[in-house]
């Protein structure tokens, strides 16, 4: 049985086994721990430099951005200035969440161009679709339209040297006859171009098994959100390792996923947020990656 200690070695081992799709074999998981900065949304909007410094001090190696716009940039910083801030704190940002509703719903291709430019300036690897507005996802045909637009966006990203990924909540698992929105996105997007960022909390909350998803679609889930579920109230998050999500089982099958980057995320807190991110980092590093 694969153990967590082989997390870094899976890519080489699987080359010999050749049981996975080529995209899975190309994955290069690392022991770096990242954080989705939405976790600290209340703090970072007031003090971006201070928050980035505290994230680095907690031990994180990578960050994932959210909320970029042409008006506000990255919390008031131009992309190049934000990249310099990260570098000064020995951090990188391999991915960022960018709003795609207008690109998908209204055909605003200029939005995508702006996101690509910002991502390249920060030296990202992936542009991530973080959410879909209600009006965009009312039917199976809506999801087919979304898949079509994601394929087009992924081609543009590839030309720019970037990848495209889609981040889930739980609404994608709503049934449309014998399928779901998520199945449509998986099946009708180009598997070599459109990857997925699996939010483990939302998958478990939808009563699904991440490992089963890895087995069905090896190599597609290049990023994870590592977000735990409060034992008393599943609608709430808690520090990683303190909740009900069986992360050890999931991390044991990391290579099947194709995961390259993991990001701790927490949307609500019962303790000080900075104490929380330190606790989550320590658990992931000690118990899941060592």
TrEMBL record:
* Pfam families in UniProt: AP_endonuc_2 (PF01261)
Instruction: Give the top-rank taxon of the lineage listed in the UniProt record for this protein.
Output: Bacteria
Keyword line: Isomerase, Signal
Q: Which GO terms describe its molecular function?
A: isomerase activity
Sequence ranges assigned to domain Xylose isomerase-like TIM barrel in this UniProt record:
54-268
Checking Gene3D superfamilies in the record gives:
Divalent-metal-dependent TIM barrel enzymes
Instruction: Reply yes or no: does the keyword Iron apply.
Output: no
Nucleotide-binding in keyword set? no
Residues annotated as signal peptide: 1-27
Report what the protein is called: Sugar phosphate isomerase/epimerase
Q: Which organism is it from?
A: Pontibacter qinzhouensis
Q: What is the lineage of its organism?
A: Bacteria, Pseudomonadati, Bacteroidota, Cytophagia, Cytophagales
């Amino acid at each position: 049985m694969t153990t967590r200690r082989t997390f870094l070695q899976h890519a080489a081992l699987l080359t010999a086994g050749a049981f996975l799709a080529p995209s899975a074999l190309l994955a290069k998981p690392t022991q770096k721990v990242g954080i989705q900065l939405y976790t600290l949304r209340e703090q970072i909007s007031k003090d971006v430099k201070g928050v980035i410094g505290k994230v680095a001090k907690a031990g994180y190696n990578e960050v994932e951005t959210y909320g970029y716009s042409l008006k506000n940039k990255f919390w008031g910083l131009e992309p190049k200035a934000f990249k310099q801030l990260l570098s000064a704190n020995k951090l990188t940002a391999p991915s960022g969440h960018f709003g795609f509703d207008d690109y998908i719903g209204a055909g605003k291709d200029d939005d995508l161009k702006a996101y690509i430019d910002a991502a390249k300036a920060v030296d990202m690897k992936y542009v991530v679709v973080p959410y879909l507005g209600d009006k965009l996802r009312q039917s199976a045909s809506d999801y087919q339209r979304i898949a079509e637009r994601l394929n087009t966006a992924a081609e543009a990203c590839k030309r720019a040297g970037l990848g495209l990924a889609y981040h889930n909540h739980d609404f994608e698992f709503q049934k449309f006859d014998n399928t779901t929105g998520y199945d449509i996105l998986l099946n009708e997007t180009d598997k070599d171009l459109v990857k997925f960022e699996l939010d483990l909390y939302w998958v478990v909350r939808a009563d699904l098994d991440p490992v089963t998803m890895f087995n069905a679609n090896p190599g597609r889930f290049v990023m994870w959100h590592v977000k735990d579920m409060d034992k008393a109230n599943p609608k709430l998050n808690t520090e990683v390792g303190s909740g009900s999500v069986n992360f050890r089982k999931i991390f044991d099958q990391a290579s099947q996923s194709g995961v390259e980057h993991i990001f701790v995320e927490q949307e609500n807190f019962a303790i000080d947020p900075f104490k929380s991110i330190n606790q989550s980092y320590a658990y992931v590093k000690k118990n899941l990656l060592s």
